């Protein structure tokens, strides 16, 4: 029987343990990326979509798993919130004191 040095035994055992840990990590990442069940494989692409403005959604015209293209309407935000802001700004503008002459005339005086 061939006798191996202790350092070779330790190195060989370490290599086997590292290989086993590497395979476990690979299978874990593979399962997270492509989960499966006994009856089939599950794949999903989930994309986060965030509007540039905030508000209550009043309509979502797309269905699950519908193919969408650039420019397709994904959701509709309640316009009442923004209309209230516009109405408030107009009221503030209407309530501002006005001078008798326009600004360019006052600058030349």
What report would you give on this structure?
By secondary structure, this protein is mostly helical. It has two domains: 1-44, no CATH class; 46-96, no CATH class. The protein contains three helices and two strands, in the order αββαα. The protein has a two-stranded antiparallel ribbon. The longest helix is centred in the N-terminal third of the chain and has 28 residues, at 6-33. It is elongated, with a radius of gyration of 34 Å. The termini are far apart. The model has no long low-confidence stretch (mean pLDDT 83).
Could you tell me the mean pLDDT? 83
Quickly give the structural class: mainly alpha
**Biggest sheet features:** 2 strands, antiparallel
Distance between the termini: 113 Å
- Give the domain tally: 2
N-to-C SSE series? HEEHH
Rg over alpha carbons: 34 Å
- Percent strand equals under 5%
Query: Strand order of the main beta sheet, please?
Result: 1-2
The proportion of residues forming helix, as a percent range, comes to 40-55%
Number of helices: 3
Work out the number of β strands. 2
Shape: elongated
Low-confidence stretches: none
